[in-house]
């Protein structure tokens, strides 16, 4: 999830540094900068996480900026895998990575969950998207921590995790539980899908690649991928021109959706 809400970091650099999704808001951490279309925050009772869990009540607070200045390089605890091309300049390991089989299972389960069961049951993620974002972000490594504080399979940022937990009444432990990390990242993708779908795509939540003319066109799938890395506020600011603020990151994820080294696992 290099993730976080606000983030005005350099877009191309983010691709080189594993994307660090879950970015977030505008530069001031509040509403989008400039004069983008009126924002419509997702509704108030979702997402349902487990069938036995009561529907959480959403608050009105939007995600706060989460991107932090890069720290001095930290020696990694174990060698990084050689088939992941997005190795960050500064990272470390906290614990041991789970197997790729377990990572795949967790991402599949997270991608198959309906996060807006009551208010937007038609909003569905897909494994192809979630696996590609995760591979771009972490190379499916559950123990990797970037120096911007992004962690795990989906590179969930601390402030983004706090936002998701507080907004929806959840208790994801994205640093201590790789399955929660997958859920938190997928949940954020679902949140972005609804947010952008409501604001720019006439309440359509169709993430089909066929809706996109190219990897750089203004379509829901590309916009959601862009928002995961650059933040919804940064995407809002680019909405008037219908251009993606981080086209290289989006192109990389879209390419991984079609052909990913992770497909061999």
From TrEMBL:
Gene3D superfamilies: 1.10.530.10. Residues 32-63, 71-80 have a biased composition (Low complexity). SUPFAM superfamilies: Lysozyme-like. It comes from the Bacteria. It holds the Pfam family SLT. Residues 1-25 form the signal peptide. Keywords: Signal. Residues 27-82 are annotated as: Disordered. Residues 115-242 form the Transglycosylase SLT domain. This is Transglycosylase SLT domain-containing protein.
């Amino acid at each position: 999830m290099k993730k976080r809400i606000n983030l005005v970091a350099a877009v191309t650099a983010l691709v080189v540094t594993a994307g660090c999704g879950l970015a977030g808001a505008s530069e001031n951490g509040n509403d989008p900068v400039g004069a983008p279309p009126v924002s419509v925050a997702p509704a108030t009772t979702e997402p349902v996480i487990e069938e036995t869990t009561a529907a959480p009540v959403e608050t009105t607070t939007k995600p706060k900026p989460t991107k932090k200045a890069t720290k001095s390089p930290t020696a990694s605890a174990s060698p990084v895998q050689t088939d992941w091309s997005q190795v960050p300049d500064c990272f470390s390991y906290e614990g041991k990575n789970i197997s790729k089989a377990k990572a795949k299972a967790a991402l599949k389960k997270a991608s198959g969950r309906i996060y807006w069961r009551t208010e937007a049951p038609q909003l569905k993620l897909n494994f192809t998207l979630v696996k590609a974002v995760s591979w771009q972000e972490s190379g499916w490594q559950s123990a990797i921590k970037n120096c911007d504080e992004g962690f795990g399979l989906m590179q969930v940022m601390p402030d983004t995790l706090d936002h998701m937990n507080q907004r929806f009444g959840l208790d994801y432990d994205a640093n201590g539980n790789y399955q929660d990390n997958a859920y938190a990242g997928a949940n954020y993708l679902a949140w972005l899908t609804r947010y952008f779908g409501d604001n720019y795509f006439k309440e359509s939540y169709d993430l089909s690649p066929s809706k996109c003319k190219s990897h750089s066109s203004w379509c829901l799938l590309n916009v959601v991928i862009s928002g995961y890395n650059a933040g919804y506020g940064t995407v809002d600011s680019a909405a008037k021109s219908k251009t993606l603020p981080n086209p290289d990151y989006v192109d990389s994820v879209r390419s991984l959706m079609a052909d990913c080294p992770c497909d061999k696992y």
